[in-house]
Design goal:
Elements (H helix, E strand, L loop, with lengths): L2 E6 L3 E3 L4 E8 L7 E9 L7 E2 L3 E4 L5 E8 L9 E8 L4 E4 L1 E7 L2 E6 L3 E6 L4 E5 L20 E7 L6 E8 L11 E8 L14 E6 L6 E3 L3 E3 L9 E8 L12 H4 L10 E6 L3 E6 L4 E5 L35 E6 L3 E6 L4 E5 L41 E6 L3 E6 L4 E5 L38 E6 L3 E6 L4 E6 L13 E2 L4 E8 L6 E10 L2 E10 L13 E7 L7 E10 L7 E10 L26 E6 L3 E6 L4 E6 L12 E2 L21 E6 L3 E6 L4 E6 L14 E2 L25
């Protein structure tokens, strides 16, 4: 009787895979025609999730025969499912009669916050990792992606000459290292004789895991480790921990086992976002439904958190009360506030009011009291156009502590925190807007963005704002300390009229204040030294007992357009209450005319990027920016010292001449791979790839890069964690996030 087995070419397929096949594989060519009966079992349902024949006829003369199968792409919000195919035949001896296949949901898009990341399938299933804080709608606030369940990792890296080996031995009660209750010891050392065995004379150290009277500590057998982000040259590792459930083994979970799918009920949504502690979705009924912490009114639920009890989730998630007969056209989430454009074209914002980010002329939070909801929730006054017609928002962007909108006359207005000049109003003092009366409405001036191009999309992040124009060009402003403004110049901020460094001093009236400013070189850049003293005896020099100070200011690089201005105040001048003093300011001469001037408008150049294709989406991190274009070009710039820009170099890109995004190193996502969506917001960036994989890079502050091995490490700066050895961390070495 011929011998055969059932085999799948792959153990997993995606729900949109379409036609696949299993195979009946014989040891030798089949000598006579046979019929194979096919049965299936598993949580994937036949004729709903997949199609399979009842039987397959095999014609003699071949060793391998296909069993045609079809993966059915339905719209059910399903988890990972699998089925087992079993073959029987009276004329065939099956050495392996069954084979299993997993059907994985199809990732469609990503959502990111300052602390977490979510993947959304084409059927609206949501799975998130990183910092939760009730933003993941799982019924708890537990962080996801920071440990191995009961286990932690212990590793040692190879050096340039020898591999590092490990041995794990059990310690009995009374042993030297764990005298009271025994335990385990992991010894390590270099394999200096290269025999693959760690001998006693090669041991250079060890780690003990000692039991207690009530706790049993376990350690796995050592294994070789190929995680270049930790050890550029390779190494050895074990997992260790406490046997919490007393089953005699360490239950080291994968990320997929830790992730719980968000409980969002039967709602179909067109958009989903997460903030620091809350999330919202725009349903097909044009309702906005939010969950998470209602601290400061984030979810507009009268101060009551939604989702600390699972019963509050799913179909129980309420729609935000925004007013009678009003639905939502679009929305955006910041760290602690949310803004929505409504069906009557009004704009409403709620949550934390710090810095005036809600645009209500005060800093009071809205949404944490029931009497602030519905018709009582105020709209944002955006003023009138030149003809006196009320301006409305057509696009809104909620940043960390500021908000911006593209208005119906194609202008852009921003309000909220301006400490890093994300409002783009060329205010050198960085005053907040929207936190006091007479700052909104017609008092709020539109940002001058120049005469070339009409704004079509807007993005707000931690300390930056970016606008995409109808000519496929891009402008960004705000914090530029890491070059994230994209202007390839040393300029701490863009949007402050070039005045990046300011210092003022007022004396005590006992004598004139004498000050001098000299240029110098510091920290590989241009700097200034300010010397000042109170000349009590008015002799022009510092004498014993007189107040004297020096102050240094450094730029990040040399820049021929840096200028400095000093204003001195004599005794009895109005400034400094007549006590004498000075104001000093230095920064960038944008127009190269020897004076400070506007950094916005036509003075703010379009960013030179790697493509002329339209922008698809843009992500603003803490100090890096990534832009994804419709031709799949991914262009990142700014801070890569923590890996956020993903340049595989420990550099700041964009803070020096020539460092345009156009010239930035490529973001390598792997051989022949490209991004179809990106997300992030903090130290991390993530990309959904064309093969449905998700990869993340940057610093894993809360597990948001999705690798248990790399929690609390930086990935994407081109250095391993152990010895800061240069290593390729991106590309094919960048791990895929295990979501299912």
């Amino acid at each position: 009787m011929p011998s055969a087995s059932i085999q799948f070419a792959s153990q997993r397929v995606f729900e949109d895979q379409g036609d696949v096949s299993a195979s009946v594989v014989f040891e030798h060519k089949l000598c006579s025609d046979q019929t194979v009966l096919i049965t299936t079992s598993g949580d994937a349902e036949k004729d709903q999730d997949f199609g399979a024949p009842e039987s397959v006829g095999l014609t003699a003369g071949y060793r391998e025969y296909p069993i045609p199968l079809t993966i059915l792409d339905d719209t059910d919000k399903e988890e990972l499912e699998s089925f087992t195919l079993t073959a029987t035949s009276d004329g065939i001896n099956f050495s392996q009669a069954s084979a299993s296949l997993a059907i994985e949901p199809v990732p469609a898009q990503l959502a990111g916050s300052y602390y977490g990341t979510c993947m959304i399938t084409q059927d609206s299933l949501v799975r998130c990792w990183g910092y939760n804080g009730y933003a993941f709608a799982t019924g708890d606030s537990d962080e996801v992606g920071i440990d191995f369940g009961e286990a932690d990792i212990f590793y040692r890296c190879d050096d340039e000459n020898y591999p590092t080996l490990m041995n794990t031995v059990a310690l009995e009660k009374g042993d030297t290292y764990c005298t009271s209750w025994g335990g385990t010891r992991t010894e390590f050392g270099a394999d200096t004789n290269l025999d693959g065995i760690l001998s006693d004379d090669e041991v250079t150290g060890g780690r003990n895991q000692c039991n207690t009277e009530t706790l049993n500590r376990l350690t796995t057998e050592p294994e070789r480790m190929d995680i270049p982000q930790l050890c550029a040259l390779g190494g050895s590792m074990v997992l260790y921990g406490i046997d919490d459930n007393s089953n005699g083994q360490l239950d080291g979970t994968t990320l997929a086992e830790q992730i719980q799918s968000s409980q969002l009920g039967d709602f179909v949504f067109s958009k989903l976002q997460i903030g620091g502690y809350h999330g919202c979705m725009l349903t097909d009924a044009n309702e906005l439904r939010c969950w998470g912490s209602d601290s400061n009114g984030r979810v507009a639920n009268g101060g009551n958190t939604i989702g600390d009890d699972a019963a509050e989730l799913g179909n129980a998630i309420p729609a935000v009360a925004l007013g009678d007969n009003l639905t939502v056209k679009d929305f955006d989430i910041g760290e602690g506030h949310t803004c929505a454009i409504l069906s009557d074209d009004s704009l409403k914002c709620w949550g934390s009011g710090n810095s005036g980010r809600l645009g209500h002329g005060e800093t009071t939070s809205i949404g944490d009291s029931s009497d602030e909801l519905g018709n009582n929730m105020p709209s944002v006054d955006l003023g009138n156009d030149a003809l006196g017609v009320r301006l409305t928002a057509v696009k809104v962007a909620a940043g960390y502590q500021h908000t911006c909108a593209i208005l119906s006359d194609n202008s852009v207005k921003c309000w909220g925190d301006n400490g890093d000049h994300a409002l783009g109003n060329d205010d050198p003092d960085g005053n907040d807007i929207g936190d006091d009366t007479n700052e909104m409405g017609d008092f709020l001036q539109a940002i001058y963005l120049g005469n070339d191009g009409i704004p079509v999309d807007i993005f707000a992040g931690y300390e930056n704002t970016c606008v995409a124009f109808d000519n496929n060009r891009l402008k960004c402003w705000g914090n530029n300390g890491s070059g994230q403004g994209g202007q390839a110049r040393s300029d701490d901020h863009i949007g402050d009229a070039g005045q990046d460094w300011q210092f003022s001093y007022c004396g005590n009236g006992n004598g004139p204040v004498v000050v001098s400013v000299t240029e110098n070189t510091c920290n590989n850049g241009q700097g200034y030294t300010i010397e000042y003293f109170i000349d009590e005896n008015d002799n022009g020099s510092v004498d014993n007992g007189e107040f004297y100070r020096t102050r240094g200011e450094c730029t990040t690089s040399f820049d021929s357009n840096l200028i400095s201005q000093l204003n001195q105040y004599a005794l009895n001048d109005v400034e400094c209450e007549g006590k004498g003093g000075f104001d000093w300011v230095a920064g960038v001469d944008v127009d190269n005319n020897g004076n400070f001037g506007n950094e916005m408008g036509d003075s703010l150049s379009f960013i030179d990027v790697k493509t002329s294709a339209p922008l698809k989406t843009l992500v603003i991190g803490y100090s890096a920016i990534c832009a994804l274009f419709e031709d799949h070009t991914l262009n990142c710039w700014g801070d890569s010292t923590e890996g956020t820009a993903g340049l595989d170099q420990e550099i700041l890109w964009g803070d020096d001449v020539g460092e345009t995004p156009l010239n930035a190193p490529e973001v390598d996502l792997g051989t022949d791979r490209y991004a179809v969506d990106i997300a992030g917001g903090g130290y991390q960036m993530c990309a959904l790839l064309d093969n449905h994989d998700v990869k993340c890079w940057g610093y894993s502050e809360y597990g948001e890069t999705g690798s248990l091995y790399l929690y609390d490490y930086s990935v994407g700066n081109g250095l391993d964690y152990d010895e800061d050895r240069p290593v390729q961390e991106m590309g094919d070495n960048l791990p895929v996030v295990e979501i299912f």
